[in-house]
Amino acid sequence: MHLILFLIFAGFCLAGAVNLLLQTHPINSALSLIVVMSSLAVLYLLLGAEFLAIAQIIVYAGAVMVLFTFVVMLLNVGEEERTHGSKIAKTIGFPAIFVFFAVITTVILEAQRRLGGVKLSDGITTTQELSKVLFTDMLLPFELTSVLVLIAILGAVALARKEGHS
Amino acid sequence: MHFDSVPSSWYLILSALLFVLGVVGFLIKRSLITVFMSIELMLNAVNLSFVTFAHEWHAVQGQIFVFFVMMVAAAEAAVGLAIIIAIFRSRQTLNVDQIDLMKL
Fold this sequence. Notes:
Strand content of chain B: under 5%
Number of strands of chain A: 1
Number of helices of chain A: 6
Order of helices and strands of chain A: HHHHEHH
Oligomer: heterodimer
Largest sheet of chain A: none
Helix content of chain A: over 70%
Number of strands of chain B: 1
């Protein structure tokens, strides 16, 4: 059962990510990114992270992607033109990312015996447990995120303001 | 291998694949807004491996890190999209080939 669920949603995830690269219109890319985010939420649930699954849906698939689609519609961006791209990306970027993937995969497969498995019957981390650590050991970073978000809001308002008066 | 269990390494390899797709998107996409979406894809790939390791070692700290990454990503999306709007206003385009002010 777990294997089937994993395969289905991992497939959705990869298909969405590949579709993001293939589409030329930004709105299609945004919609396939929503598919990726939502199937990642299911994978989090399979891994026993119930709070993060919901936060993924609300924060990413909800708030962030609405922001993206709004900006795409607001600016009325057309299809992107396909050009050749930079030489640096071709000569260094693609070999580097291939080497990176090869190294990561070898390391993971090498360590596979020491890593365990994921079962559906595994206990899930409840929101209560998570918040207990968040509000005791991690209280200062948690409060700092509120400052970060406040600064981000102020910065976004300042950047997007229309410069008409001065 | 049993039918009801999946090795943790599969989740990690999925995470690596998503990260690689994000980097490839960053390199090949020409529209500023899809380049930005690729960055979100990379952040999500890293989140998946954080959650997998948190499950592997029964540690809550990994999930708390994912929470912080989500917060930073939300703040980054707000500021980044405001920058995109400002750039579009001054240049009338989102093509990265034409927005090369900071190129060496």
